[in-house]
Amino acid sequence: MEVKTLTVSEISHYIKRLLTSDPILCNIHVEGELSNFKLHSSGHLYFTLKDAYSKITCIMFKSNTSQLTITPKDGMKVVIKGYISLYERDGQYQLYVQEMKSAGLGNLHIAFQQLKDSLQKEGIFDAKHKKPIPFIPQKIGIITSPTGAAIRDILSVIKRRFPKVELCIFPVLVQGEQAAASIVKAIELCNTYEDIEVIILGRGGGSIEELWAFNEEVVARGIFHSKIPIVSAVGHETDFTIADFVADVRAQTPSAAAELVVPRLKDIEETLNTFQKRLSFLMNTKLIQEKQRLDAMKNSYSFKYPLNPVYDQKQYIDQLYKNLSKVMHQKIFLYKENLRNTVERLNSLNPLSVFSRGYAVVTDPHGKIIKSVAEVKEDYLMKIRLLDGSITTKVIEVEKEDKPLEKTKL
């Protein structure tokens, strides 16, 4: 097989695709020391991240620098969130930075990434395990702090959108050492209610330490083993926890979770009214069409004269019978003519017909036909076959013709 030759641009583009499609390299956290830091006039940050053995070129675009809570400088130890890609012009891979925090939080980030990678390999995050959210749940379980802003936001949104739904609140600790066990216990308790159709699990925003209960493995497995679908609503839009990846649906905020689990009652009523109007219109249209069709049938030739097709078929059959009789008579006549001609030809070939014209057949006593006078002599016995019998006779005299008879050529 011939190996295709690639251009430099093609191989660079291919390597870039490999890097950006890798599930680990597309979302990583890296800890290291800043060096060669430079703030460009465009607002982008260029620097190198290094440790005792290696270094990597980094870039942070201006669109991400607005979220910085620290002032980067050479020698600072930081934890960076971003992705690895290739700068195709130079053929150099580099780390594209999305977030940068002080290394004081590095251990938590590393623990988060390690647990995420482990659970991802185990398949807990796979889409095949995600359960669908009911369109209009009759009863919703809410697992959150009873005193936080999240519960107020959830209740406010649900009351405004769909006040008829029943809510069951399971108070839990959402931060601290006992929070993870409290959350898991609430999930298990919620699953004992057969009429609860969906669960909202969440809390308001906070630092990574404050949200850490939702990054615990025990909470992740509790969410995974829930028979009831769970909507994760932890923190703000930019916050991600392990619970978000395990849950059946991730909402950006607790308010967004409430909007996900219940439709707006007014929207449903408007939709139903629209459907009712469309159904009524379609039914009326159908009735009008069928009435017109019925009237057309009533006024149709076939409906007024239903037996005419039968009469036409009878007439057609009569015509077929007439044609058949004519053909049969013609055939019989032809067959008779053929038979008569055949009989005449056979009669003309019949030896007995020769006798009727006065001819006879002469044979010797043994039945051999005598054709010439040379075959007989005087006192020779012969048998003469006539039309109505035969005669035995004796030759008295033999006379030979000078000119024998010749056969007539046809």
Largest sheet: 5 strands, mixed, barrel
Number of helices: 12
Whole-Å distance between the termini? 87 Å
Task: Look at the helices and sheets and give the structural class.
Answer: alpha/beta
Placed side by side, the strands forming the largest sheet appear as 1-2-3-5-4
CATH-assigned fold name of the largest domain: Rossmann fold
Give a count of the beta strands, DSSP E runs of length 2 or more: 13
Number of domains: 3
Bulk shape: elongated
- H/E series: HEEEHEEHEHEHEHEHEHHHHHEEE
Please state the average pLDDT score: 88
> For this structure, what is the CATH class of the largest domain?
Alpha Beta
| Helix coverage percent | 40-55%
CATH superfamily of the largest domain: Hypothetical protein af1403, domain 2
DSSP strand (E) fraction?
15-25%
Subunit structure: Heterooligomer composed of large and small subunits.
GO molecular function: exodeoxyribonuclease VII activity; nucleic acid binding
Enzyme class: hydrolase
Domain Exonuclease VII large subunit C-terminal: 124-333
Name its key features:
five-stranded mixed β-barrel, 3 domains, 410 residues, 13 strands, Rossmann fold, 12 helices
Descriptive report:
It catalyses: Exonucleolytic cleavage in either 5'- to 3'- or 3'- to 5'-direction to yield nucleoside 5'-phosphates. This is Exodeoxyribonuclease 7 large subunit. Bidirectionally degrades single-stranded DNA into large acid-insoluble oligonucleotides, which are then degraded further into small acid-soluble oligonucleotides. Residues 124-333 form the Exonuclease VII large subunit C-terminal domain. Keywords: Cytoplasm, Exonuclease, Hydrolase, Nuclease. There is one protein chain. This protein is an alpha/beta fold and 410 residues long. It has three domains: 8-122, OB fold (Dihydrolipoamide Acetyltransferase, E2P); 133-263, Hypothetical protein af1403, domain 2 (Rossmann fold), CATH 3.40.50; 354-394, no CATH class. It contains twelve helices and 13 strands. It has helices spanning 8-21, 62-65, 106-122, 149-161, 179-190, 217-224, 242-246, 254-261, 265-298, 301-304, 308-349, 351-355, and strands spanning 28-39, 45-50, 55-60, 77-87, 92-102, 139-144, 166-171, 198-203, 230-234, 249-250, 361-363, 381-385, 390-394. The strands form three sheets. Strands 1-2-3-5-4 form a five-stranded mixed beta barrel. Strands 7-6-8-9-10 form a five-stranded parallel beta sheet, sandwiched between helices. Strands 11-12-13 form a three-stranded antiparallel beta sheet, with no helix packed on it. Strand 2 and strand 3 (55-60) form a beta hairpin. It is elongated and about 165 Å long. The model has no long low-confidence stretch (mean pLDDT 88).
